[in-house]
Amino acid sequence: MLLLAMTTASIAQTRRFECDAPRGKRIELGPSGNANDTQWIDDDLDAVRPTVVVDGETFSVTWGTSVAPERKGAKLTTYVFAAAHRNVGSIFATRVDDTTVEIFRFYFDSKALYKPPSRLGAPSPDGKVSPPFVASYFATCREQ
Fold it and tell me: Nearest to residue 26, comparing CAs of 133, 98, 119, 109?
C-alpha cells in the first residue's frame, strides 16, 4: 500500500527538464532523385534546446531554435499533450496532421528525449511531389 502511495505521488509531481542540443539525422533522396538513392544527412541542431515538462499524464515539449539567427527571432514551438501514454519507464505522445507525424518520447531513467518526425511528400508549386522526410533526433536532458 505504501509503495502504491509513493508511486502515485511521484507520478503527480511536476518535473521539468532542460535538454542539450539534440543529435540527429534525416533521410533524403540522393542526387539522382531515384527512390533507391537515399542517404542519411546530419542535421545541424546546435541552436535547438528542447525542454520537457511532465505533470502526471500531461506531457509538454518545447522544440525549436532557442538561439536567434541574425535579424530573426527565436522560433520555439511548444507541444502540449493532455493524454500522453505513460508507464514506469517513459512517457510518449504523437502529433499528427495532414502532412506530418511526430512522436515525442521521454525516458525517465536516462533523462533522454527521442523525436522521430516524418513528413509525407506534398506537391510543390510546379506540381512535382517532394520526397518524404524521415528523421531521428535524440537529446540528453537534466532535471531542473
Answer: 133
